[in-house]
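haha ok so turns out i had the wrong file open the whole time. this is the CORRECT one, sorry everyone. sequence first:
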Amino acid sequence: MTAAWNNAAAQRLNIGDATLEYACFGPAPSGAPTLVLLHEGLGCTELWRDFLQQLADQTGLGVVAYSRAGYGRSSTIKLPRSLDYMTDEATDVLGDVMTELGVTQAILLGHSDGATIAAIYAGSVSDQRVRGLVLMAPHFFVETSGVATIKETLAQYQNGDLKSKLSKYHDDPDVTFHGWYDSWTHPDFAKWTVADNIDHWRIPVLAIQGSDDPYGTMAQISEIDERIYSPLETLIVDGCGHAPHLEQPDQTTAAIVEFCATLVRLEQAEVLLESA
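then structure:
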């Protein structure tokens, strides 16, 4: 571990040629398992708002989030992004971030694109540190209804207030927006799928989906249910859109807290069995 764990936001770590901002709360990895948060396609560390601190307070675990390159205050990137940008993040960056932070036991918690990155990591990277997954509004394949919703954001960005809103949180909002928008609306992206990663999960999973999510339907959760071999819990949040942790925070946080508590109990029971 070379990156500091200071229970604060706006910290920096270096991964390859990139400088990434991160925030961490709760006990350091030497003292407890760590929730590693992965943000959505227009998100960043700051846009988790007080969710990190709440999770640390209610789970007793360490909580860390970082802004991927091209987001927040992290290094920018050159466009266009690869259409495999989520796989690239999972295979080339996420593991190094956890190593740099000294994470030894992790629960990956992702939202939207971040959930997909977590899902890919768990299904394609052999890493014994990862003990569970929390997936909020994950994407495993492209849905035409979701792409239609994404296409509506271009006018909001060019003619509305979306760019000014993003500018408050991202150093380079054009890269943030177009890195996401141009990938999801690219004609070749229509055939994109990472659902085969589900077949390789061997850890417990909590999947959370808003019933009214305009970016993804219940088909994404059904894909998990049909393919998964490991324990699965699902929370369908009625009347909720794309961000359960912001729209229905009490219900969402309670489910995550209970899921984490169960994982910790299972880990402790395994340790006792091994030492008996």
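The longest strand covers residues 8-15.
again sry for the mixup
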